Amino acid sequence: MEKAPGSPSVRGSYPQKTAGILSSQYGINLFLAGLVLTFAWAVHAVGISKSHLLSYLITLMLVQLLWMLWYLCRSCTQRRLIREKDTHAGARWLKCGITLFAVITLILDSFKIGYYVDFSNCLSAAEGIFPVTHAIHTILQVYFLWCHAKDIIQSFKTLERFGVIHSVFTNLLLWTNGVLTESKHQLNEHKERLITLGFGNITIVLDDHAPQCNCTTTTLCSIFSQGIYYLYPFNIEYHILASTMLYVLWKNIGRKVEHHQQHKTPFKFHGITVGMIFGLIVLISTIAKVVVYLIQIGRSKNKSELALTMFYLHAISVLALMCTAGIVALLIYRLEDRSLDNSKNPARKLDAELLVGTAAGSWLLSWGSILAIICAQAHPKYTWYNLPYSILVIVEKYIQNLFIIESIHRKEEKVNDDIKTLRIVTISRGSTLSLTPSYKEIYNGRATGDEGELPYLLNGSICARENDAAKEEASQANCPAMHSAPELSFYSRNSVANHKRRILKNIAAFLFLCNLSLWIPPAFGCRPEYDNGLEEIVFGFEPWIIVVNLAMPFSIFYRMHSAASLFEVNCKT
């Protein structure tokens, strides 16, 4: 029955819709103001210093801290109330991942505090307050996400919308600040390598934000300053994960959910040995490649070219294997007749949008490299490897996105209408007895002690299959069974389905480790887009560096988000 236009429920939806629009506009303006301030500091705008940017970020974090404390206190006073939960949001493995990144972020904050102490004579107070506030913010936010990431808020909805969206864009600004700081450091290292290699045709000015005073303890200052930049990739991933989890919480405010049981899907190593072995080989070889690359690049022209050649050949091999694995998985899906789950799910929708949106970053870099190879007049030998590498980056992400998005939208396997129950017919005292456990019990292995085996009924007792081979043969000899054609057909289909499922789990495990492997090089400074040189000659140094600095953070995030999604696919398959 449709509700009348003037009914209370319809009228009540208008203020909430307005609150959603107002809160989103508030968050966007909050973010844009911080983005302009960050940009002004980055380009050394007159009258804008780092202390202004940090003061703005500190204010945002303090406001979020007050809101989280208020929410936690209100939740404690209403502990006895039954709260609705979104079972798809805030998975345990996701919480564990964000906790790991948060711990490393706390180490980063401690390094920043030590750095401030050593340079306290010439650094502003904001640079000392920021890491302390950020550490407190990190601890409370992780606790908040562990306890309330699944909440579906149904009270104080207007206020909560503003509080949650404030938290989302606060984390996005902290992510932007981390990306910019890390990118400036990488750019300075790249410029220093160009100076070493003697590129005189490029105007190189180091973007120096270093303190204008001496350090009190030189050794500690060196450890802190170098250690900070190696920890930034984890800090960047922490904030983007936190913002996505909070965004799902914001989307769930006031949402009506269908009450159905959500089956837990724990991660199991059983059956994915092949995928894990090949994935670990890729991971170990990638770590070795990054170490060699960082040692060799910039030492001399010959060593740099060898390092770039090694990078491209390794990446081409890995990407080709990933494309093959993805195509096999998609072919298996095409052979199966299973519908997709199109029900409303904010977490799943966000995952799919992030996969496609962040893939655009590396696609932009790849098309830039392809165009540079086509237009360049001179082609050093190592630059030709960049062509298949760039093409494979585009194709691999295309295939992988299809596989992941289809995997997270696939419905669980349903019971065949032709086989509602399985009959086990045996002879007992000259009479026929039937034992008819449900399909689901046998399929899940609960009707028997051993998966895939049928119990045999003789003389009123069930003869279970023993582990010992001799007992097994004796049991089968003493317990004759007559299986009907539908039963044999079911077990044949079940065996094929199990083989397909095992192949898909191995593919998901392999791609999971491959994406972790491909996250490592750009996150820790192995970026041939900087060192190749061909793109800088075609597009110009400054324009290409701007493109790389804008696109690279999305490319790095894509790999980590893909790894997280593939972990979920492995658990679900």
From TrEMBL:
<keyword id="KW-0407">Ion channel</keyword>
<keyword id="KW-0472">Membrane</keyword>
<keyword id="KW-0813">Transport</keyword>
<feature type="transmembrane region" description="Helical">
    <location>
        <begin position="229"/>
        <end position="250"/>
    </location>
</feature>
<keyword id="KW-0406">Ion transport</keyword>
<feature type="transmembrane region" description="Helical">
    <location>
        <begin position="26"/>
        <end position="47"/>
    </location>
</feature>
<dbReference type="GO" id="GO:0015252">
    <property type="term" value="F:proton channel activity"/>
</dbReference>
<feature type="transmembrane region" description="Helical">
    <location>
        <begin position="537"/>
        <end position="558"/>
    </location>
</feature>
<dbReference type="InterPro" id="IPR004878">
    <property type="entry name" value="Otopetrin"/>
</dbReference>
<keyword id="KW-1133">Transmembrane helix</keyword>
<dbReference type="Pfam" id="PF03189">
    <property type="entry name" value="Otopetrin"/>
</dbReference>
<feature type="transmembrane region" description="Helical">
    <location>
        <begin position="53"/>
        <end position="72"/>
    </location>
</feature>
<keyword id="KW-0812">Transmembrane</keyword>
<keyword id="KW-1003">Cell membrane</keyword>
<feature type="transmembrane region" description="Helical">
    <location>
        <begin position="311"/>
        <end position="333"/>
    </location>
</feature>
<feature type="transmembrane region" description="Helical">
    <location>
        <begin position="354"/>
        <end position="379"/>
    </location>
</feature>
<protein>
    <submittedName>
        <fullName>OTOP1 protein</fullName>
    </submittedName>
</protein>
<feature type="transmembrane region" description="Helical">
    <location>
        <begin position="93"/>
        <end position="117"/>
    </location>
</feature>
<dbReference type="GO" id="GO:0005886">
    <property type="term" value="C:plasma membrane"/>
</dbReference>
<comment type="similarity">
    <text>Belongs to the otopetrin family.</text>
</comment>
<keyword id="KW-0375">Hydrogen ion transport</keyword>
<dbReference type="GO" id="GO:0042472">
    <property type="term" value="P:inner ear morphogenesis"/>
</dbReference>
<feature type="transmembrane region" description="Helical">
    <location>
        <begin position="271"/>
        <end position="295"/>
    </location>
</feature>
<feature type="transmembrane region" description="Helical">
    <location>
        <begin position="129"/>
        <end position="146"/>
    </location>
</feature>
<feature type="transmembrane region" description="Helical">
    <location>
        <begin position="503"/>
        <end position="525"/>
    </location>
</feature>
